[in-house]
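Need a sequence for this fold. Nothing fancy.
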């Protein structure tokens, strides 16, 4: 397997190997016929080892990488910064929820609506990306799932802002639900 990985490297698949072999063929120690045989042997070995008709386990082992591979399209995206923003948002929710319940007003309700919606959006997006993969469901259904995540998040944020501006607010609504539940116990 190591030899097949060697043959896949750009140095072996480029013209560099062929030029090097031709240079060796012009040296007096090697005859041109032997060089031709050597090139033919390497090419046949390369074709034999690089066949894609191997078992799926071998293909998955060959494609396994332990280091991050950066594509040209992914150059601008850094997911570690997004992960930090997600964790900060989660940490902000811990003091924000009790603070909004203790002193209900539109500013704290709006901050609560935005952070709850962002937190749930990132969670739903992670579920859609991780579990609705194109390799399982095809190319269309994952796009529909991501679209539904956006639709649900926009509807959630819009509904929460509607409750804040046209009703009693998020914190007061939660307090009313608790009052109903406390009244049923008595």
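Here you go.
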């Amino acid at each position: 397997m190591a030899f097949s990985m060697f043959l896949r490297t750009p140095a072996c698949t480029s013209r560099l190997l062929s030029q090097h072999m031709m240079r060796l063929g012009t040296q007096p120690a090697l005859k041109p016929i032997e060089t031709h045989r050597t090139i033919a042997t390497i090419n046949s070995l390369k074709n034999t080892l690089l066949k894609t008709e191997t078992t799926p386990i071998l293909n998955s082992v060959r494609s396994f990488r332990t280091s991050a591979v950066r594509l040209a399209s992914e150059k601008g995206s850094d997911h570690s910064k997004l992960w930090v923003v997600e964790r900060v948002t989660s940490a902000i929710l811990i003091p924000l929820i009790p603070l909004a319940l203790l002193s209900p007003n539109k500013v704290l309700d709006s901050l609560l609506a935005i952070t709850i919606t962002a937190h749930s959006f990132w969670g739903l997006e992670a579920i859609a990306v991780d579990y609705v993969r194109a390799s399982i469901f095809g190319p269309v259904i994952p796009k529909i799932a991501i679209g539904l995540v956006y639709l649900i998040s926009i509807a959630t944020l819009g509904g929460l802002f509607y409750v804040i501006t046209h009703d009693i607010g998020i914190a007061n609504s939660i307090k009313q639900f608790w009052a109903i539940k406390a009244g049923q116990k008595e």
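For context: Residues 1-7 have pLDDT under 50 and may be disordered.
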